[in-house]
Amino acid sequence: MIFAYKYGIEYETKDGLLRVLSFGVGAVSLVLCMIIIEAKKLYQAKGFIVLLGDASYTIYLSHLILLQMFYFVGLRDLFTCKECILVPELGLVVFLVICIGFSIVYYQKIEKPLYKKAISL
Asked: Do both 39 and 63 map to the same domain?
């Protein structure tokens, strides 16, 4: 998992097969690792982790749109310019907070109520 993410970051895989082989394999590895840990009863997810899992499909669907918006409004340039004191790692943290925050709110306010209505029909 770590190797896959490191490869994706080091070689800046943006599109296509290399992105799938780096970030996709890393994500699948993380999910499989957590499934095994829970199946062996070594850890039981609670609280924020469960909420994050519930919103994970929204994260998957929205992260590229949010990433494009992050670039469009100039936040990427702010965190990567040579003259700036901000570091790219801080930009990653800011993006993750935005992406996760948006996804949780979207899940709770739109996705979950629609799901409840759909199963009650």
From this structure: no
